[in-house]
Each structure stands twice: as structure tokens, then as C-alpha cells.
Amino acid sequence: SRWCLITSHKLYSSVYDPNEKTFEKLLIANRGEIACRVIKTCKKMGIKTVAIHSDVDANAVHVKMADESVCVGPAPTSKSYLNMDAIMEVIRKTRAQAVSLNVSICCSFLSSLSLQASEGVTFIGPDTHAIQAMGDKIESKLLAKNAKVNTIPGFDGVVKDADEAVRIAREIGYPVMIKASAGGGGKGMRIAWDDEETREGFRFSSQEAASSFGDDRLLIEKFIDNPRHIEIQVLADKHGNALWLNERECSIQRRNQKVVEEAPSTFLDPETRRAMGEQAVALAKAVKYSSAGTVEFLVDSSKNFYFLEMNTRLQVEHPVTECITGLDLVQEMIRVAKGYPLRHKQADIPINGWAVECRVYAEDPYKSFGLPSIGKLSQYQEPLHVPSVRVDSGIQQGSDISIYYDPMISKLITYGSNRAEALKRMEEALDNYVIRGVAHNISLLREVIVHPRFVRGDISTKFLPEVYPDGFKGHKLTDLERRELLAAAASLYVAEQLRSQRFLGTPRIPIAKSKRSSWELSVRLGDGIYPVAVSKDGSSFSVEVDGMKLNVTSEWNLASPLLSVTIDGTQRTIQRISRNASGETNIQFLGTVYKLHILTKVAAELSKYMPEKAAEDTSSILRSPMPGTVVAVSVKPGDMVSEGQEICVIEAMKMQNSMIAAKTGKV
């Protein structure tokens, strides 16, 4: 069957015809989870793989998975993964018959791609004409208009400077979207609501575009306020056949980058879905597209839809489409590149069940919904034991999350027969995901998927700032949840005390007194201090909190990073992130990490005599919240600055961030 397979590791078709010859060796000029994803399908198709890597990626997962690997330069992408001279040399050296590139930046390397074709090397993806046409947002918009695709009102030319940007923005009418012509992934994009923001947006967008894509051209178009972001997956061959593989809902975003995706969308009716699909196919045929690609649309509350851009690559969120259609899109791309016609007709493409994808990032969600974090994954365990879960990742325990590349840890995908089932599995998968050593956005992802607005499908690209106007603060505990957390933490504390009293199954001191069966504790959570009484009853604990008794049971495997705890019949999966000898412990509960301080009643009474360390006054210091490159300094010693004034610009993980003064003063 080509329908979605429900297995612990993958949710897409794995039926391959051994008699259908494609390529003997394929070079993958990419890294991370997408490189690993391509290698998995190549192995099943009997294709040998060659991985390229930078010097800091020598021990990366995609390098270990490939049959061969070659270093192509130092860490910066421009000197390694985007170094086409080095990549071309690897193709010749390894005699690869085909190459899979990071197509989002291929427009800079069209001559090299043409050279590959002349040397008999096949590119896994569309031809250079389609890449160039769709990679340039200005040209793609003109082509879309000619193909009778709905487009957003705006300026169709290249914006020359900040003054012209302001003039055009005034003509279109605020708000406007300033974005890189060759951009993608939210980079080089700014929303401007007035002249000042337009000038600032032009400066940052052009700098980001030049840094990320080697092309600083910008365009300006009307910003459609409060839309949905819905995209159509297309698949086309070299024989004039093209299909649309249904839609993906991608409206949950921060900084114009997707966070949660699902397929299908709760918003589209069959008529709108068909209209969007047919326009997407019309555009693909207009540029003679041949491969998998994505046509992105903005959809307003009245279901009017407007062409946004076409991505000529395998999108990050492609797994949800594979889940509901049963197609392996990497396999289809390889078949098309070899010249085979599509095996399916439009009527064959189903919507079978529901799939949800969460992008798990090494980010601190409490800072602007996700400030990048770096470090080594000291502990890492994917939730593959949860039914109908797929994890696409390119890291493992011990991997480094560095400043040089995107901070994505993985794509977590769950599948169900309906949306409620898929969301429930996602909730369980997030609770069972173990990530240590870097900050991560599990707490934000979990809050999004259980939020009433998201559950009923009431979403837009403004979901995060509307739901969290003051920024994300983590899960807000109800009284019942607070009692559950206090009971679980107190029980865990007592279980540890009992374990520490035993050695090799016998008391350390044979003449010790009889076993203790009750404990009086004081637990600090947030601004509150709560008396908690714990008594042992066989293998379970009876815990009294706020005058209410809760029964807590577990296997209490204290060596496991995951603890399944049942509290008055309700199962909860908790993770103890850290603890110290003074009673401070961090516990992940319902996705959010809570700081607790657990003391015995006597120790708590004495703790008032312990002096507290005064907090450091940092208002006179500008400290970068993340490692990065200083690309601009806007002041000099002796300058007077006011609160909110830009001091410098830091570039980290391909994004530019303006650092501002926290107060008025002299530099």
C-alpha cells in the first residue's frame, strides 16, 4: 500500500520498485535533518550517498549516515555548504551521478548547475529556469500574474534606496512588507507601519539579504494584516504532468518563520482547496516546473487567497504532506530527476487522516518567542516510543548547536485518524522529549497545541503576539495543576531520601532505627511557600497540599530522565531537569520548567537566617543575549544616548538583531 504507514520511526510510503533504475551515487550538498532525510530514502532505493560537511560538522549525523563524506571548508556557510567550486570538485572526485542541493540559494549558482548538466550530473530538483524565475520574488510575481494566479498588490520593481522605499510605501499605503527578492525562511523580511520603520526595515532587510543570499535587492508589497499562511505542495514531472498534493496550514509563526504546521487546514473547504491547488499547478506549468515544490499563499478571513512565493525545494514541513498522502516526496523527486513520469493522477491523491509538525528549536521561547541558544546536547532522547510519532533530526546526544547554522533540533511529527488524535499524540510526544544542554522551545510548542484558540482552529499569522501580548511566560498553572506539581515534587524528594538510606538493598547501618513513614516539608514555588505533608503507603505516597490529600504512584526509576507519575488517577510525565544539595530542583511539568525549593520543615524555619545574594544591576551594561558577529556599531565613546536607542547590530544564526540602550546615559 502507498498509504501512510503508522510506525514508530516514519510516516510515509516505503514501497520501492527494485527494477526501476535511478542513480548509483548521489551527492547531498546540505546538512542537518534534511540531509539525513534524503539519505534515508536513498538507502531504501539502493543509492549510495556522498555527504559534504564543514570542518565543525565532521562528526555530524548526516556525515555518519552517508556512504562517503568530504570536507568542503570551514564553518561559515559561504566557505563550505555554499562553496560551489569546492562542491563541484567533490562531484568530480566522487563521480556522483546526481546532486541534491540547498535549492533556496541555488540562484547564485546557476552557471555551476548548468556546468553540472553539461558534465552529465543530474540535479535533483527543477531546472535552472524555474529556480531563477521562482527564486526571484519580483519575477515570480509577474509570472504568477500572467498565469492568472491571485497576487498581492505592490511594487513590482526593485527598490533602489531607503528614500524610494518610503515613497513606494506611501503610494501602496501602510502597512507594507519589505522583503528580499531572493529571500526565504523569514530572512530579509520586515513589516513597516510608518516612514521610520520603512527606512529601518530597508537597511536591515538589505543587509540580511546580502549576507544570506548574496543578493540585496528588495521589493515592497501591501501587508495583509491578520492572514493565514497556507501553502500547496505541488509535484511535476518532465512530461507536462503536475499534481497538487493538498495544503499545509503554516500560520503559527514568529519573526515570519513557521513554528507549527499541519495538514490539512481546518479553514479550507473543498472548493477553496481545489481553486488554490489548480492555481498552484498553473504556475508550476507556466515555468515548466519539474520536481516537488511549494506555492505559498496568504488567505484572508473571507477565504480570498493571494500568491506569496514559490519555494523550489523540499520544504521543512513536507512530512505532514507525506503522512496524509502516503507519498515519499524524496523518492518522487529522484524519480522525476531521472526522467520517469508521475505514477499518480490527481484523483489518486487522498487526504488520509491528520498530521501535525512542531519545529523543535534550540531557542529560549521566553525571549521574543525564541532567541537562539547554543551548546552541547548533554542528553537527548526522542519520543519514538509514543505511537504514530516521526522525528526528522540531524543531531544526536553529544552534538553541538553552534552559532554558524540554523538552531533547529528536529521536526516532531504526529499522525492521527483525525485532528484531535494527532494533537493528543503531539502533546504526549512533547512531554516525552528529552533535551538537555541547550534551551529549547518545547514549552511554547506545547502551549500552542493545547490553547483553546488553536484547538478550535481560530489562528492567523498573528497568533503568538495576540495570545501572548506581553511575551511568552510559560504555562500558567491552575490550582489543581499546582497541587499536582507540588505533590509530584514532594514525592520525588522523599523517594530520593529513601533511596539514599539504602546500599545494595540493605540498610547502611544495621542498628538504624525503624523506617520513617512520614515527612513534613516546605516547598517554594514561584512567590508562594506551601507546607506539604507526605506519608508512605506501600509503593505509593499520600500527599497533603492545601488541606487536600492526593495519592501519588510511580515506579520511581530515579535514573530515568522521564518519570511517569499517576496523581489521583491522572497520568503525568515529568522530567527532573536539575537539582542541588540545598533542595533546589527544576522540574518540567506540562512542558514548562518550574523552579522549586524543597526543604524539611526544620530547614525551612532556619533558612530565614541565610542572606540572599543581591541581584546585579545591568542597566548600565549592554550585553549580547547570544553569541554572534558585531556587524555595526552605531555609537562611540562619549556619545549621549537615550533609552531605546540603537547601540550596535549583532548577526547570529543568519538573523540581524538591533541592540538598544536600557537607559539614558553616556557611552
UniProtKB/TrEMBL annotation:
One GO biological process from the UniProt record?
lipid catabolic process
The entry's protein name is Propionyl-CoA carboxylase alpha chain, mitochondrial
- Uppermost EC category: ligase
Which GO molecular function entries does the Swiss-Prot or TrEMBL record give?
A: ATP binding; metal ion binding; propionyl-CoA carboxylase activity
Query: PROSITE patterns from the xrefs?
Result: ATP_GRASP, BC, BIOTIN, BIOTINYL_LIPOYL, CPSASE_1, CPSASE_2
UniProt keyword Transferase present: no
Q: Where is the ATP-grasp domain?
A: 141-338
Q: Gene that codes for this?
A: Pcca
Q: Which residues form the Biotin carboxylation domain?
A: 22-469
Q: What's the Enzyme Commission number for this chain?
A: 6.4.1.3
Q: Which InterPro entries match?
A: ATP-grasp (IPR011761), ATP_grasp_subdomain_1 (IPR013815), BC-like_N (IPR005481), Biotin_BS (IPR001882), Biotin_carboxylase_complex (IPR050856), Biotin_carboxylation_dom (IPR011764), Biotin_COase_C (IPR005482), Biotin_lipoyl (IPR000089)
What is the species listed in this Swiss-Prot or TrEMBL entry? Chaetorhynchus papuensis (pygmy drongo)
Q: What's the cofactor?
A: biotin
Domain Lipoyl-binding: where?
A: 613-667
So, what pathway does this thing act in?
Metabolic intermediate metabolism; propanoyl-CoA degradation; succinyl-CoA from propanoyl-CoA: step 1/3
What are the subcellular locations of this protein?
Mitochondrion matrix
Q: What is its main location?
A: mitochondrion
Q: Which reaction does it catalyse?
A: propanoyl-CoA + hydrogencarbonate + ATP = (S)-methylmalonyl-CoA + ADP + phosphate + H(+); butanoyl-CoA + hydrogencarbonate + ATP = (2S)-ethylmalonyl-CoA + ADP + phosphate + H(+)
- Spell out the Pfam families in the cross-references: Biotin_carb_C, Biotin_carb_N, Biotin_lipoyl, CPSase_L_D2, PCC_BT
Q: Which GO terms describe its cellular component?
A: mitochondrial matrix
Out of the domains of life, which is the source?
Answer: Eukaryota
* Keywords for the protein's UniProt record, in alphabetical order: ATP-binding, Biotin, Ligase, Lipid degradation, Lipid metabolism, Magnesium, Manganese, Metal-binding, Nucleotide-binding, Transit peptide
